C-alpha cells in the first residue's frame, strides 16, 4: 500500500479526508501508521511549531513516569483511554518491566489506531484493545476487552494522557470522569496530561495558542484548560504530590532527560479514596 497503513477488514473505515491526531502523533513519534493527510498536517504543524515533536516525546515520557509511579504504588491493572498506536514504550511494556503480571485494557476510537493495536497486541495475555469513545464510560466498561481484562474489585489506574482535552464543555467532562471514578475501588489512580496555556514560559504559551488554532483543522479540536479548571474537574480525587504542575515538573526522572519541545501540558495524578 502506498499511502499509509493497511487496516483490518470490517470495522469502521478510517476518515482519510481529515487528519487524525492518533496518526499524526504516530508520525511525530517516528511510526508508519499514518496517511498523506496526516503527514501534511504534521508538516504544517512542524512549520508553525518547530520542535513540537519534542513536546509529543515529552508527553510520552510523562506517560512512562506515571505508569511506573502507579505500578510502584501497587496498582497492576491499567485502563488506557485514548491509547493511540502503541509505539515507543507502550504501557504494558513499561509496567511489565516492573510487574510482569500487569494487565492493560487499551481503548481508542480511531480505526487505524485500533487496527494496529490489534496487530501489535495479538497473542499477549492480559492485554486488550477496544474500540470505544472515552466520552461514553458505559460503552468503555461494557467493551469485552475491558470487562475481561480488568477486575474492578481491585484498584485500577486510569490513564487519560493527552486525551481529556478532546472533551469539550458539551461533552460534560466532569460526568465523564465520574463515570469512571464511580466504578473504581479506593486505591485506584488517575493519571492525566492536558493541553493548556497556563504556562510560565511566554514562548510555550504562544506555542500552545498556535497549537490550538491548528487542531481546529483536525478531526479532534483541543479544549485548553488552566490549572484551576483541571484541579476542579478532578476535585473528587486526592491529588498526589505535587498536584497539577507543568508536565516536565511531574516526578522528573534524571535517567530520562526532557526533549526540548515547544509548548507544554499540565500533568497530575489523583487517587480514589
Ligand atoms: C495525542 S494521542 C495520545 C496517545 C497516548 N495516550 C499518549 O499519550 O501517548 C490522543 C489519542 O486519543 C484518541 N482519542 C481522541 N478522542 C477520543 C475519544 N473520544 N475516545 C477514545 N479515544 C480518543 C485519539 O485517537 C488518539 O489516539
From TrEMBL:
<dbReference type="Pfam" id="PF04672">
    <property type="entry name" value="Methyltransf_19"/>
</dbReference>
<dbReference type="GO" id="GO:0008168">
    <property type="term" value="F:methyltransferase activity"/>
</dbReference>
<keyword id="KW-0489">Methyltransferase</keyword>
<dbReference type="GO" id="GO:0032259">
    <property type="term" value="P:methylation"/>
</dbReference>
<dbReference type="InterPro" id="IPR006764">
    <property type="entry name" value="SAM_dep_MeTrfase_SAV2177_type"/>
</dbReference>
<protein>
    <submittedName>
        <fullName>S-adenosyl methyltransferase</fullName>
    </submittedName>
</protein>
<keyword id="KW-0808">Transferase</keyword>
<dbReference type="InterPro" id="IPR029063">
    <property type="entry name" value="SAM-dependent_MTases_sf"/>
</dbReference>
